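Lab meeting, item 3. Inverse folding demo.
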């Protein structure tokens, strides 16, 4: 795991309460807001808009820390949101991100007395003790470190969103990206899309309907052990890549709905958080995108 990522991870992630009436996270984010030229309006809107997106897509049950913990648990089990989910978030972050990095550093130097707080020391200690292989390993550390109350703080939420966006992009050459989860390629469902945007399964050209049928058969048979490898190349158009991602997502969502009806006699959306966890564990969205050189 690249040291640069962990340095960014330690700098960006939140701050633990240190026997103070005001949590350092709250003081820090207010300092950052105040030092933006717009008093942090754009950054506040970014956090609010993405949380609303998570709520509208029913990824969050509500804005409580326990709901955010559920997302982290899913990431710890190798279930991540796809890249396209973060398109608006990424565009808006580009507008405020550079200033955030500078203001975050300046405010930390002003407010914090030590370079590493107990929270950051704990994260660093856990990282050195564990064999970090993927973003799911980082999510497991987050589960150990953050309380539900921590996950309700805006500073923590923002950096959780940034981590989620980073985790959505795997197997890149960027020095701050994470490696994909370990998987068995022979047991995975392998999809390839070529430069002509043709789709292949086991080297056989297939239609979208054929892909859906084969994919559903594989996922229903392998349940929680399902892994989908999506192979593409640099000439694959973004639009066709996203259409293929959507086909995968819609088929897995359909399987979840069917399983929910069979098991609980309820639509997936009507399930409790614990019931959704069981369905998500049964049929995780475990997709690994790999660029073929």
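The presenter then showed the designed sequence:
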């Amino acid at each position: 795991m690249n040291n640069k990522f962990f340095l960014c991870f330690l700098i960006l992630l939140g701050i633990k309460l240190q026997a103070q009436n005001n949590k350092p996270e709250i003081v820090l984010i207010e300092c950052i807001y105040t030092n933006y030229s717009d008093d942090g309006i754009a950054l506040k809107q970014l956090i609010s808009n993405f949380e609303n997106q998570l709520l509208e897509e029913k990824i969050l049950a509500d804005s409580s820390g326990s709901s955010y913990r559920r997302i982290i648990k899913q990431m710890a089990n190798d279930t991540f949101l796809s890249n396209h989910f973060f398109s608006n978030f990424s565009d808006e972050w580009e507008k405020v991100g550079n200033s955030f990095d500078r203001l975050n550093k300046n405010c930390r130097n002003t407010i914090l007395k030590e370079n590493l707080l107990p929270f950051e020391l704990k994260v660093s200690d856990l990282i050195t003790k564990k064999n970090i292989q993927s973003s799911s390993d980082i999510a497991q550390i987050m589960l150990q470190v953050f309380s539900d109350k921590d996950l309700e703080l805006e500073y923590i939420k923002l950096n959780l969103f940034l981590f989620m966006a980073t985790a959505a992009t795997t197997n890149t050459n960027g020095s701050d990206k994470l490696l994909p989860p370990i998987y068995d390629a022979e047991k995975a469902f392998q999809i390839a899309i070529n430069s002509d945007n043709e789709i292949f399964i086991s080297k056989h050209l297939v239609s979208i309907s054929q892909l859906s049928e084969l994919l559903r058969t594989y996922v229903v048979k392998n349940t929680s052990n399902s892994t989908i490898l999506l192979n593409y190349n640099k000439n694959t158009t973004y639009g066709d890549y996203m259409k293929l991602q959507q086909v995968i997502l819609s088929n897995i969502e359909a399987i979840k709905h069917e399983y929910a009806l069979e098991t609980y006699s309820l639509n997936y959306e009507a399930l409790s958080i614990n019931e959704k966890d069981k369905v998500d564990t049964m049929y995780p969205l475990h997709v690994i995108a790999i660029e073929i050189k």
